[in-house]
């Protein structure tokens, strides 16, 4: 069985480390990718790591994942709160979906409390900083290993 996982990041996350570091921390997306690749190696997962500011590109990667991947770990960023299109795309995916937010969105403005993506996500991680991505990968690997028995 495939152990391919897509790790997808939405808009503005390319600025991680520079953007509001009091909220999102000092680590860059390149740091996150490095740590996720190291963990994926330990968990015997194959990883595709992407970021885009464009909704359609994220949707295209979800479609790609449909064909090949067993899990999607996704921080949809602001699209979390607005995108029915990303929810629809995730609804076509049969594997595990983990939604990640670096900040605790529930502690923040009201408009961040609603997530379209949560309607599909099997698990939601918020407020663990960039560690949330690693927790998401751990969860996908655990569910896969349980399936294998
Ligand atoms: C975020 C939270 C969103 O509300 C925000 O629009 C982001 C990042 C997070 O990781 O905490 O861009 O998804």
Write the layout of secondary structure elements.
Layout: E1 4-9, H1 21-24, H2 29-42, E2 46-51, H3 55-68, E3 71-75, H4 84-90, E4 96-101, E5 123-126, H5 131-148
Parallel strand pairs: 1-2, 1-3, 3-4, 4-5
Helix pairs in contact: 2-5, 3-4
Short description:
With 149 residues, the chain is α/β, with parallel strands linked by helices.
Task: Quickly list its features.
38% helix; binds 1,3,4-trihydroxy-5-OXO-cyclohexanecarboxylic acid; 149 residues; 18% strand
Q: In words, what does this structure look like?
A:
- The protein has 149 residues and is α/β, with parallel strands linked by helices.
- It has a single domain, classed as Dehydroquinase, class II (Rossmann fold).
- 38% of the residues lie in helices and 18% in strands.
- It is built from 5 helices and 5 strands, in the order E-H-H-E-H-E-H-E-E-H.
- Helix 2 runs parallel beside helix 5 and helix 3 packs parallel to helix 4.
- The longest helix is centred in the last third of the chain and has 18 residues, at 131-148.
- The radius of gyration is 14 Å and the shape is globular.
- The mean pLDDT is 97.
- The site of 1,3,4-trihydroxy-5-OXO-cyclohexanecarboxylic acid has 10 residues, from loops.
What is the count of DSSP helices, taking H or I runs of 4+ residues?
Answer: 5
What kind of sheet is the major sheet?
A: 5 strands, parallel
**Largest sheet, order of strands side by side?**
2-1-3-4-5
Q: Can you tell me the CATH class?
A: Alpha Beta
| H-E string | EHHEHEHEEH
Q: Give the averaged pLDDT, no decimals.
A: 97
């Amino acid at each position: 069985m495939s152990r391919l996982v897509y790790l997808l990041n939405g808009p503005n996350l390319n600025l991680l480390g520079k953007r509001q570091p009091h909220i999102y921390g000092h680590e860059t997306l390149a740091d996150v990718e490095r740590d996720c690749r190291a963990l994926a190696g330990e968990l015997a997962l194959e990883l595709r790591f992407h970021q885009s500011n464009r909704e359609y590109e994220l949707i295209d990667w979800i479609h790609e994942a449909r064909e090949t991947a067993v899990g999607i770990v996704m921080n949809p960023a602001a699209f979390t709160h607005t995108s029915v299109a990303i929810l629809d795309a995730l609804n076509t995916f049969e594997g595990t979906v983990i939604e990640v937010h670096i900040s605790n969105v529930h502690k923040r403005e009201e408009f961040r409390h609603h997530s379209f993506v949560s309607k599909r996500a099997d698990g939601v991680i918020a407020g663990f900083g960039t560690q949330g991505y690693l927790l998401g990968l751990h969860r996908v690997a655990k569910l896969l290993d349980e399936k294998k028995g």
